[in-house]
C-alpha cells in the first residue's frame, strides 16, 4: 500500500484528494493557501482535513524511514529472512514494527545476554521443550568456571527464557490487551512530601480505571510525579490472570521443566514485560492527554485571536495600579503612541478626574480600554463616573507584561519603560486583538490547560499553525502590518516579512500587489502563496480583496462581458446577478473558486470577525468577599478547559462553571455551549475564600 493510500484511508478522503494535497504540500504550498485557492485540486477540503493530511503524510514518511533503518540493522546482523523483510515492509503500525524488531534490537548487556555468552542457550531450549526427565541432572552438564553450579545454569536458562518471552509479539499482545481492558492508575504520596502534596491533595491515593481518567487529571498527576510528590503506577487489576494467559502459550507439560518455565514467565512479566508495557501505556496516555490539552489550547487561542476588534479608533488605554497609579496612554487611530501620563484615582481623585476629561477632549477619544489586572474594577468605576458618555471596555492583560519586556516592545518603544509599553498593548488589543497578540508567545496568553506539561514541540507547532490560520483568514494590510503579523502570512516567514517592512520604509506604501515582486528574495512561489492574503488599498480594487492575482483576468473578463469596469461590478449587485458562472469554468478553474470570487466581489476584504460589544460587571461586586451563594451575576468567559469554563465576575478571581453546570442539558463538549469572551449570566454556588475558589452554575438561568 502506498503512503498516499494510507493517508487517504487514515483521514477519510479519496486517493485523488490525498495525492493532490500531498503534491501541493511537497511543492511548498501552505495549508491556508491550499484551502483557499486550490479547492478544485483538493475536492474542496477545509483546513482541518488538509492539516490532517499533512500530519499523516509526515507520520508515514517518517515511519517508512524507520522501517528502512530497522531492515538495514537486521540485515547487517545476517538475520534478515525474506519472510521477515516482507512482514516489516507490509506493516504500517509503529508498535507492531517495533515488536518485530525487538529481538534484533541492539541492547545493553542483559542477564540473558550474559547467560548466552556462558553457553546456556541450549539448556534454555531444552527447558522450553519440557521433555527432559531429569532437568537438574541435565543442568550439571553446563557447569563451568563462569557457571559454578547447576542452579546457576538453570537460573541463566530461565533468564534467557524470560527475555524470549518478553520479546515475543504474541506475549506482548496478550499483556497489551490486559492493559487496554483492565489497567488501573494508582497514586501514592512520596514520604516526607506532606507540604508539597497539599496543592495536589485531590490526586493523592487515587485508584481508578486508566481508560476513564480524564486528560486534565492525568496531566495533573504526572506533574505531581515530575515534582517528586507522588508515584504513579499503571497495571491491570488482576495480573495473575494475564500471567496465566501467557503460561497457556508456553507450558506444555506437568514436570520440573514446566515449573522452571513457569518461574521464568513470572520473572519475565514482573521484571521485563509489565514495566515495558506500563511505560508504553503511560506514554500513549500522556500523548492522548497532550492531544486533548493542545486542542483545548488551540481552540481557545483561535477564539482569542479572532475576538471582535473595535477597529481604528482613538483610544485612551489605562493599565490600572494602586500604589504606583494607573499608567495612561493615548493612541491615535493607527495605534501610534501620542501621549502618556500617570493618574492616581484613589489617592488624588479630583486631579485624576480633570486629567482624564482633558485627555478625552484634547485627543477626541472614541473609546477607553482598561486592563483587567489589579484595581481594574475600581478604575473602571472611576472612569465610568468621570466619562459616562464614553465607550469603556475591560481588556485582558494576559501576556502584556511578557510583551512589554520583550525585544519586540523595546524595538517599538526604545525610549519608554515597560509600564508605558504595557498600556499601549492594552489599547491596541482593543483595536485589533489579532495584530497585537501575534507579538506574544501564545503560551503566555493564558488560555491553555496544563500547557507547561504537554509536549512542547507539539504545542509550539499546533499554536503556530493556529496563528497562521487566523492571520490568513482575516487577511493583512501590507502597508500597516507589523513585521510580526506579516511573519504568519502564507509563504512569508520572518526574513521576507522584515524585507517587506524594509521595502515599505524605503519606498513608501505599496501601491499594488504586483509591487510585492520587487521585495528582495520574494520570488514567484512566495508571491503565489502570500499575495491573496495581503490587502492593498490602491488603484485596483481587487488588490484590497481576497481574490488572488492569478484570478484577476477572470473578474476583468466578467466586467468586459457586461460592458463595465471592475469597480462597477463590485458596487452594483444587479450587474453581478447577470453573471453566468458556467461561462468561466475551465480545466483549471471550477465553480468553488468562481463562487469564492463572487462572495469577494459582494464584500471585498470582508472581516470574518464579529462586532465588539460593551460589557458591564455588576455594581458593588468587586472582591471575592462580596460574593454570596445564590447571587446571579454577569460575567465574561476567560478560559475554557475540558472540565469547565472560567468566568470573570470582576472580583480579581475567576469562578469555575463545571461542565456539568454549564447547561440544563447534558454537555459532552463545553465548546458546544460556551466560547471565549462570551458574555454570560451565572449563579454563585459556593465561595471558598481561603482557597480562592468560586463555584458557579448556569443551570436554570
Strand content: 5-15%
Shape: globular
Distance between the termini: 55 Å
Oligomer: single chain
* β-strand number: 15
Helix content: 40-55%
Outline the biggest β-sheet.
Answer: 5 strands, mixed
Mean pLDDT reading: 92
Low-confidence stretches: none
Number of helices: 30
**Sequence of strands across the biggest β-sheet:** 6-5-4-7-8
Alpha-carbon Rg, integer:
33 Å
Given helix and strand content, the structural type is alpha/beta
Provide an overview of this structure.
- The protein is an alpha/beta fold.
- Helix content is 49%, strand content 12%.
- The protein has 30 helices and 15 strands.
- A 5-stranded mixed sheet has the order 6-5-4-7-8, sandwiched between helices. A 5-stranded mixed barrel has the order 11-12-13-15-14. Strands 2-1-3 form a 3-stranded antiparallel sheet.
- Helix 1 crosses helix 5 and helix 12 crosses helix 16.
- The longest helix has 50 residues.
- The chain is globular, with a radius of gyration of 33 Å.
Layout of secondary structure:
Blueprint lengths: L2 H9 L3 H12 L4 H7 L1 H4 L4 H30 L5 H9 L3 H8 L9 H7 L3 H9 L5 H5 L10 H18 L1 H14 E7 L4 H4 L9 E3 L5 H12 L3 E7 L2 H12 L5 H50 L9 E5 L6 E6 L5 E7 L5 H14 L4 E5 L4 H11 L5 E4 L4 H5 L2 H6 L5 H14 L1 H5 L18 H19 L1 E2 L5 H5 L6 H14 L16 H7 L3 E2 L16 H11 L3 H6 L1 H5 L13 H12 L29 E9 L3 E5 L6 E4 L20 E10 L4 E5 L4
Parallel strand pairs: 4-7, 7-8, 9-10, 13-15
Antiparallel strand pairs: 1-2, 1-3, 4-5, 5-6, 11-12, 11-14, 12-13, 14-15
Amino acid at each position: 500500500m502506498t503512503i498516499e493510500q494510507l493517508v487517504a484511508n487514515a483521514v477519510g478522503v479519496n486517493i485523488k484528494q490525498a495525492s493532490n494535497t500531498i503534491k501541493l504540500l511537497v511543492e511548498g504550498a501552505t495549508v491556508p493557501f491550499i484551502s483557499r485557492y486550490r479547492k478544485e485540486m483538493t475536492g474542496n477540503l477545509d483546513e482541518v482535513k488538509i492539516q490532517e493530511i499533512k500530519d499523516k503524510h509526515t507520520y508515514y514518511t517518517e515511519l517508512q524511514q524507520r522501517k528502512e533503518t530497522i531492515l538495514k540493522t537486521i540485515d547487517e546482523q545476517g538475520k534478515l529472512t525474506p519472510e521477515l523483510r516482507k512482514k516489516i515492509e507490509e506493516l504500517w503500525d509503529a508498535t507492531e514494527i517495533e515488536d518485530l524488531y525487538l529481538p534484533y534490537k541492539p541492547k545493553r548487556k542483559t542477564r540473558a545476554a550474559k547467560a548466552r555468552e556462558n553457553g546456556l542457550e541450549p539448556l534454555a531450549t531444552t527447558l522450553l521443550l519440557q521433555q527432559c526427565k531429569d532437568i537438574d541432572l541435565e543442568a550439571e552438564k553446563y557447569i563451568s568456571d563462569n557457571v559454578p553450579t547447576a542452579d546457576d545454569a538453570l537460573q541463566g536458562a530461565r533468564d534467557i527464557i524470560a527475555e524470549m518471552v518478553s520479546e515475543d509479539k504474541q506475549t506482548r499482545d496478550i499483556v497489551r490487551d490486559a492493559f487496554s481492558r483492565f489497567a488501573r492508575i494508582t497514586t501514592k504520596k512520596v514520604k516526607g512530601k506532606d507540604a508539597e502534596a497539599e496543592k495536589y491533595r485531590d490526586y493523592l491515593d487515587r485508584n481508578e480505571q486508566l481508560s476513564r481518567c480524564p486528560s486534565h487529571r492525568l496531566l495533573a498527576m504526572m506533574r505531581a510525579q515530575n515534582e517528586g510528590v507522588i508515584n504513579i503506577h499503571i497495571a491491570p487489576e488482576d495480573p495473575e490472570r494475564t500471567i496465566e494467559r501467557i503460561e497457556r502459550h508456553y507450558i506444555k507439560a506437568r514436570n520440573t521443566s514446566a515449573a522452571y518455565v513457569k518461574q521464568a514467565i513470572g520473572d519475565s512479566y514482573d521484571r521485563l514485560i509489565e514495566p515495558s508495557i506500563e511505560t508504553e501505556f503511560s506514554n500513549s496516555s500522556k500523548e492522548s492527554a497532550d492531544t486533548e490539552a493542545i486542542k483545548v489550547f488551540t481552540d481557545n487561542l483561535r477564539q482569542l485571536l479572532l475576538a471582535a476588534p473595535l477597529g481604528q479608533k482613538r483610544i485612551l488605554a489605562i493599565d490600572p495600579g494602586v500604589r504606583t497609579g494607573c499608567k495612561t496612554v493615548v493612541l491615535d487611530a493607527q495605534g501610534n503612541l501620542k501621549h502618556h501620563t500617570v493618574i492616581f484615582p484613589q489617592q488624588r481623585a479630583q486631579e485624576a478626574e480633570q486629567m482624564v476629561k482633558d485627555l478625552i477632549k484634547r485627543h477626541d477619544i472614541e473609546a477607553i480600554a482598561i486592563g483587567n489586572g489589579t484595581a481594574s474594577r475600581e478604575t473602571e468605576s472611576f472612569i465610568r463616573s468621570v466619562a459616562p458618555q464614553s465607550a469603556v471596555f475591560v481588556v485582558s492583560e494576559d501576556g502584556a507584561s511578557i510583551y512589554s519586556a520583550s525585544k519586540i516592545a523595546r524595538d517599538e518603544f526604545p525610549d519608554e519603560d515597560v509600564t508605558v509599553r504595557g498600556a499601549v498593548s492594552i489599547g491596541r488589543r482593543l483595536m485589533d486583538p489579532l495584530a497585537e497578540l501575534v507579538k506574544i508567545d501564545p503560551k503566555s496568553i493564558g488560555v491553555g490547560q496544563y500547557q507547561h506539561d504537554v509536549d512542547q514541540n507539539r504545542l509550539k507547532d499546533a499554536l503556530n499553525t493556529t496563528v497562521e490560520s487566523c492571520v490568513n483568514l482575516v487577511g493583512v494590510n501590507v502597508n500597516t502590518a507589523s513585521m510580526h503579523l506579516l511573519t504568519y502570512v502564507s509563504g512569508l516567514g520572518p526574513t521576507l516579512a522584515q524585507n517587506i517592512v524594509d521595502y515599505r520604509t524605503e519606498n513608501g506604501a505599496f501601491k499594488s500587489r504586483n509591487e510585492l515582486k520587487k521585495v528582495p528574495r520574494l520570488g514567484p512561489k512566495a508571491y503565489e502563496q502570500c499575495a491573496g492574503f495581503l490587502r492593498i488599498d490602491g488603484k485596483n480594487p481587487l488588490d484590497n480583496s481576497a481574490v488572488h492575482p492569478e484570478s484577476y483576468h477572470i473578474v476583468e473578463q466578467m466586467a468586459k462581458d457586461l460592458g463595465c469596469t471592475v469597480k462597477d461590478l463590485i458596487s452594483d449587485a444587479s450587474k453581478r446577478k447577470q453573471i453566468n458562472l458556467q461561462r468561466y469554468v475551465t480545466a483549471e478553474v471550477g465553480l468553488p473558486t468562481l463562487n469564492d470570487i463572487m462572495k469577494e466581489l459582494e464584500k471585498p476584504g470582508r472581516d470574518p470577525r464579529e462586532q465588539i460589544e460593551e460589557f458591564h460587571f455588576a455594581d458593588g461586586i468587586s472582591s471575592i468577599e462580596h460574593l454570596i451563594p445564590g447571587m446571579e451575576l454577569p460575567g465574561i468567559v476567560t478560559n475554557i478547559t475540558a472540565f469547565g469554563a472560567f468566568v470573570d465576575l470582576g472580583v480579581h478571581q475567576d469562578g469555575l462553571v463545571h461542565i456539568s453546570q454549564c447547561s440544563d442539558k447534558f454537555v459532552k463538549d463545553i465548546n458546544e455551549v460556551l466560547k471565549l469572551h462570551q458574555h454570560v449570566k451565572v449563579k454563585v454556588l459556593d465561595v471558598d475564600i481561603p482557597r480562592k475558589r468560586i463555584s458557579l452554575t448556569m443551570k436554570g438561568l
